[in-house]
Write a structure and sequence with these properties.
The protein has 222 residues and is an all-alpha fold. It has 11 helices and no strands.
């Protein structure tokens, strides 16, 4: 057999058909490699000046800073919507049980609780009757919205605080209010529900009515 023919057919010397395309640079890669270094430096300097100018204006102009934050929040919302496409809905969170109190009763219980506390935070709240009133309003809104046993959303809480009490709150503020209501309803808190009432409320939310058969006296046998 001719050696020339053998070398021509040898796998070691054959070139795959797609290897040339695999190593070929894209137009973007070529443009990046062929860019003038001075041009790159000018672009970097221009970007740095733009960032400095934006930072200085953000510090000096609150309205401009708020527009930037609003734009960031809107981009985050759009990104979350894109990411949530095709995903199952998250399960609803159960609401924290709250006692059956009026706004005035909730405020009175909270004030009494703060008077018994010796912490610095309690002292600060005692000096802020407006904060106690706000927490009591949040209590009423939370309890109203959680009648079906589902934890109220921040949007629903903010809307009810606005429509019922004329309170305008930001998303971060309503988040803190919801956390405070649930914290005050924890065991030992001013809005804690007794265990017996809590279990009855849970049965009501699940079954539609409280299960009282276990507590009813047994009928007398003849």
């Amino acid at each position: 057999m001719d050696d020339t023919d053998g070398n021509r057919d040898s796998p070691s010397t054959s070139v795959p058909a797609g290897s040339e395309q695999e190593h070929r640079l894209t137009a973007e890669e070529l443009a990046f490699l062929l860019r003038d270094p001075m041009l790159q430096a000018r672009e970097a300097e221009r970007a740095a000046r733009s960032n400095r100018s934006r930072t200085e204006r953000r510090a000096a102009d609150p309205a401009y800073a708020e527009r930037l934050r609003a734009g960031d929040r809107e981009r985050q919302r759009r990104r979350r919507r894109r990411d949530s496409i095709g995903r199952p809905e998250p399960p609803e969170q159960p609401a924290t049980a709250l006692p059956d109190l009026t706004q005035a009763q909730a405020a009175e219980r909270l004030a009494d609780h703060l008077n018994r506390c010796a912490s610095a935070q309690a002292a600060q709240l005692r000096a802020r009757p407006d904060r106690i009133r706000l927490y009591a309003e949040a209590f009423v809104a939370y309890r109203t919205l959680s009648a079906d046993g589902v934890r109220p959303t921040r949007g629903a809480l903010a809307a009810l605080l606005k429509s019922r009490f004329g309170r305008s709150v930001t998303p971060s503020q309503v988040q803190k209010l919801r956390d405070h209501v649930e914290g005050f309803a924890a065991a030992g808190g001013p809005w804690a529900v007794p265990p017996a009432s809590r279990s009855a409320a849970a049965r009501t939310a699940i079954g539609g009515k409280a299960d009282m058969d276990g507590h009813a006296p047994r009928p007398l046998r003849p």
